[in-house]
Structure formats: C-alpha cells, structure tokens
C-alpha cells in the first residue's frame, strides 16, 4: 500500500511473534500504514521486515525503541513488549506525542495502568489495548441482541475459557512464563480475554466479589500457568438477584475459546470468541424459549446459527478504529476517546482481583 498523508503512520517497538499479525493488520487497514519497526538490535528488526515480506525501502528500520518513538513521522506506536516494559515505553511514547496501542495485559496492576493512561491523557493521545475480538462485527451483533433487542432477557450466568497447550519450549523460554517479564502469566495473557468477556456481557458493570478457585497451578518461577475464578454480581436493582460467572485460563489444556451466556429468556454460545475459526465470517448459536418436550426426551427448539461476515480481519478492524480516532484528534482537534482506557482499566481491576485472591489462598476479594 502506498503511504499517504491521510494515513496514520505506525511504528512497532518490539518484534514479538504477535507483532507479525499486527504488521499485517496495519497494512490491511485502509487508514493506516506501517512506517517503522524497531528492536533492541537492528539485525532483529531487519529479520522481521524480511520474514514478513515488508518493503525495506518503505519501512524504516531502527535498532532501538527510542528511535521509533522519537521519529517525527510516526503518529502511533504498537507495543508488543513484555508487560513489565509497558508503562515505561508507553509513557515515553506519549510524551513524544505518539498514540499508543498496547498488547494485553496492559500492565502488571491497575496502579501501573493509571500511570500509563495518565501520560496519554496529559499529552492528548489515544490509548487502546489489543483486545481485537471487541472489534469483530460478530461481537457487535451479539451486543445488539444482548442490550438493544434484549433477546436473552437478564443475563444471569456467564462462562468463559481461554486455554492452550504449548510446546515444552514455551515453558522454558517464553516471556509469558518469566516472572521478571510477564508476571501475570496465563491470567494476564489468556484470562484478560475471559474477564473482559464477563465485563462486556454485563455492559462493563463491575462485579461485587471475585474469588479464585483452588485449582491454581504455578511454575517454578511462581507464575500462574492455570487458574479459574468465580465472579459474582449482586444486582442493586433487584432484591436477591445475582449474576454468576466462571472463567478458566490455562497453558495446560487443549485450545478452547468458549463463551456462553445464559439469560432469563435465552442463551448464546460460541467456541471461538477470541479468534474466529475463519477470518471472513464468524458465527454463534442462539437459543430462545428452550424447553424439554414430553418425557424429557428432546428439546422443543434447536439453536439458531447466526453467521456474521467480516470485511477485514478483526485485527485490521481494530487498527482501523484506532486510526480513525487518531485522525480525529490530529485533523479535527477531537479529544481522545475515553471508552477504551476505561474498558482496559476495568479489565485490569478484575485481573488484579483474581491475582489478589490467588495470593490470599483463594479468599474472596470485594470490589
């Protein structure tokens, strides 16, 4: 794609594997272009350019993160760095007037995130985390059914999983199992999605209490590699009404990305909520008014399969939305959209609550 003045010019700092997907997304989105890549060594940055088939003549290659955030032609930075480095480099980027798209988990705790977001706010730049599934049109369709049409009634049960079974090399070398790099482990990497899905299903209302379940597994570095949690809402508007949620995240199980919502009038289920099985379309099952037939030998209805087409990969749609907000700030003087940092902060609060409950021996943590 030829670079134009109208496009938001991205710099990537760090060449982690996830950066390959975002480099592709940046160039697929119609309003953005990859302008620069920086790593701690210029050789690694050059390899990244070559492996991903990028144009050496068009994409600037830097041997440090500083050079990317100080490049006056870079409008925004994408940060796939270890979580322990997010605050420092996001603050540096914001102070250099760069808008910040950061991988999840956003920070090691909410205090760190507040520093990060505070720097973005004080410098008038947009912040967003990399929860790509929120930008898929399927998510928009489910939200319409949940909140606009209220086809499920009042949601009172949520179940969400994100699990994967990586290679033995992962447990030896990956940053996500290193306490000094990504101390939140599976909770931060995979649980972020599960906890975010619970918040999303409750229209970002915070729960009453969070309790880690006693199935926690840690590695020799003390990093969580598998855990579950119970999240409970006691509705202030209905005496005695509750919503219960269970999340499970693990590096020890086969791949799953389940999201199940049950309400007073219907249910919604999908098994690929984070990464759809196909880029071009995604689906979910919806059931309303289900009852057992006589003798309980079957059901009176079958789940309805709802298919939603997708014009671009969800990562490109995320970049497109981020770039749209950046362009509005840059060309129209609009303020940064506070919705995205607020979503990140509430998700981080739940991550912190699960971690605190784990540290307390699975005692309940009240919010």
From TrEMBL:
Q: Which Pfam families match?
A: GFO_IDH_MocA
A GO molecular function for this record? nucleotide binding
Q: What is this protein called?
A: Gfo/Idh/MocA-like oxidoreductase N-terminal domain-containing protein
Output the superkingdom of the source species.
Eukaryota
Cited Gene3D superfamilies:
Dihydrodipicolinate Reductase, domain 2, NAD(P)-binding Rossmann-like Domain
InterPro entries, A to Z: Gfo/Idh/MocA-like_OxRdtase_N (IPR000683), NAD(P)-bd_dom_sf (IPR036291)
Domain Gfo/Idh/MocA-like oxidoreductase N-terminal: start-end pairs: 8-128
């Amino acid at each position: 794609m030829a670079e134009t003045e109208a496009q938001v010019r991205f710099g990537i700092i760090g060449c982690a594997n996830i950066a390959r997907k975002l480099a592709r997304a940046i160039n697929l989105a119609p309003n953005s272009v990859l302008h620069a890549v920086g790593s701690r060594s210029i050789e690694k940055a050059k390899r990244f350019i070559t492996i991903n088939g990028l144009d050496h003549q068009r994409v600037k290659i830097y041997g440090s993160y500083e050079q990317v955030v100080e490049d006056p032609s870079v409008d925004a930075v994408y940060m796939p760095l270890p979580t322990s480095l997010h605050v420092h480099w996001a603050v540096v980027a914001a102070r250099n007037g760069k808008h910040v798209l950061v991988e999840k988990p956003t920070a090691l705790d909410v205090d760190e995130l507040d520093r990060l977001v505070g720097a973005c706010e004080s410098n008038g730049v947009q912040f967003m985390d990399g929860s790509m599934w929120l930008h898929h049109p399927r998510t928009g369709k489910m939200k319409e059914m949940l909140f606009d049409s209220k086809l499920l009634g009042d949601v009172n049960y949520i179940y969400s999983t994100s699990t994967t079974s990586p290679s033995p090399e992962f447990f030896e070398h990956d940053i996500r199992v290193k306490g000094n790099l990504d101390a939140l482990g599976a909770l931060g990497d995979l649980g972020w999605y599960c906890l975010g899905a619970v918040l999303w299903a409750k229209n970002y209302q915070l729960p009453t209490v969070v309790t880690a379940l006693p199935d926690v597994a840690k590695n020799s570095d003390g990093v969580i590699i598998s855990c579950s949690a119970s999240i409970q809402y006691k509705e202030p508007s209905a005496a005695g009404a509750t919503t219960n949620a269970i999340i499970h995240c693990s590096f020890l199980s086969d791949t799953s990305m389940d999201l199940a919502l049950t309400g007073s009038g219907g249910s919604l289920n999908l098994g690929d909520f984070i990464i759809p099985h196909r880029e071009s379309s995604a689906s979910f099952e919806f059931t309303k008014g289900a009852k057992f037939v006589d003798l309980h030998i079957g059901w009176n209805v079958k789940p309805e399969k709802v298919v939603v087409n997708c014009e671009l990969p969800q990562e490109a749609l995320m970049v497109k939305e981020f770039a749209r907000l950046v362009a509005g700030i840059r060309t129209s003087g609009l303020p940064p959209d506070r919705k995205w940092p607020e979503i990140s902060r509430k998700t981080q609060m739940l991550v912190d609550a699960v971690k605190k409950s784990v540290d307390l021996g699975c005692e309940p943590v009240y919010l």
